[in-house]
Amino acid sequence: MSPKIAVTIGDINGIGPEVALKAVVKKSVLSVCDPFIIAPFKLVNIYSPFLGIKLHVMENEDDFERGKNLANIYPMREFKNVKITLGQPSKISGQIAGESIEIAVEMCLNGKASAVCTSPVSKKSLNLAGFNFPGQTEMIAHLSNSKRYLMMFINNKIKLALATIHIPLSKVSKTITHELLAEKIEILIETLKKDFLINSPSIAVLGLNPHAGEDGLIGDEEKKIIKPVIEKFSAKNFKIDGPFSADGFFGEKKFKNYDAILSMYHDQGLIPVKLIDFYNTVNFSAGLNIVRTSPDHGTAYDIAGRLIANEKSMVQAIILSAKIYKNRANFNE
């Protein structure tokens, strides 16, 4: 049976509806899963004529139809007096995006969907609507009752995880502890085995400071925290190396020698990953009780409504969600 992928609508004032519609009708997507968009029908119907896409309104999760340029819509409740303000965050756009996420997660927990792929949202819009989370990852972890999670970015050339996510750079050093790093490495090992079927994964851990601290001259987090955690796992025969100086590690393309990399903070990992392959990179939330992916970009307010958004990352996100769902099933057999 083909996996059922619940695709959220995202921010209606951004490119979420556009990339979602474009992606779910792709042959490469339909060849591996049955994707459907959770959205108010009237809203997606605004976009569909301009994109040349027909819509099928599903009566339930099993009412899936296939056809050329046909998108399946799992209808949310219709919202009254919705005003689309392209390029701007708003309470109503946050409300629609948030409720779409809630429905998708619930469907996964109840077995009505195999995985969820979330379209880009505005954190400000979600907060205006009362969804007070730093991002979708934290929100979905809460909704799925997942105690641990790890943000990863994946394409055909690299798998990279983040030790810290959406926090100010000034707080990164204090946030990185022995316990945090050990937990993130544990999740990373588990997901590489379970979700990517890599039996004995190799992991590279990046340092926090320039030159990985230069043996304590430019910071001591590597000596006091990062290296001892690596040694703890190495003593248990896990293949974990580091801490590496990030600039040299990526400059010399050492990432090709490892199954995954653990970065200490957001931009340290995201800049090289997106330079390696921006359009085909996927955000994956490892460690959750459900499978969740998303494209690696945001709402792109600057091009919202112009119908020029690139849907490649969304396509890859849906495909990866189906692959991980199948891998987990095979791993658990």
From TrEMBL:
Entry keywords, A to Z: Metal-binding, NAD, Oxidoreductase
Organism: Candidatus Chryseopegocella kryptomonas
Record-linked InterPro entries: PdxA_fam
SUPFAM superfamilies membership: Isocitrate/Isopropylmalate dehydrogenase-like
Gene Ontology molecular function, alphabetical: metal ion binding; NAD binding; oxidoreductase activity
Name of the protein this chain belongs to: 4-hydroxythreonine-4-phosphate dehydrogenase
A Pfam match: PdxA
Superkingdom classification of source: Bacteria
